[in-house]
Each structure stands twice: as structure tokens, then as C-alpha cells.
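Task 17 of the worksheet. Students: predict the tertiary structure of the chain below and write it out as C-alpha cells. Keep your answer in the requested format; marks are given for formatting as well as content.
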Amino acid sequence: MIEQSKGKRQELHLLQRKLLEICGVLNVESFDSEEFLLQTELGHLTIRGQNLHIKNLNLEQGLVSIEGLVNSLSYLDPGSKSSGKGLMGKLFR
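Model answer:
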């Protein structure tokens, strides 16, 4: 049985690995052409790929669209804000 967090919503739509649409985004923590780190209603989400860039951003509605070649999506463990490769990982290497 899948446990759903009360009042929290997260939807991901990936089209042809080239367009990723996400709702439930609270903040864009960091991004570059290979990695995005987003704070979502269900935790920090890391998106990795190539030639990534923001197509659309509306934090009032919690919507983000990312274009480029998407290779992976992963949620970080609670309490962890750095994937090691992201901006914070690069600064504190």
C-alpha cells in the first residue's frame, strides 16, 4: 500500500526524455546544464541529464518545466540537501 502525505501533491510528466513537467515545486535550490535540485512538497528532487534548462517556472503555482535530455530523477534522503555533485557539493568539495 502506498502512503500518501496529507495535503501534499507531486506530479511528474516526462515526455520523450526531453521535456519534464513537475508540479508541487516549492523552490529551485540550484541548477546547471547537467543537474537541477528542486525542493518539492515531498522532499528534495535531483534531476540529472544533458543540456538541461528551464522552459517555464511559476513558483506561485508550484510548476517547473525543464527541457533537455533527462537521464535520472531521484529524491534525496530527508535532511539531505546536497547530492554531492550539485552546487553545494561543488562548493564544499
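Marker's comment: The chain has one helix and six strands. The mean pLDDT is 85.
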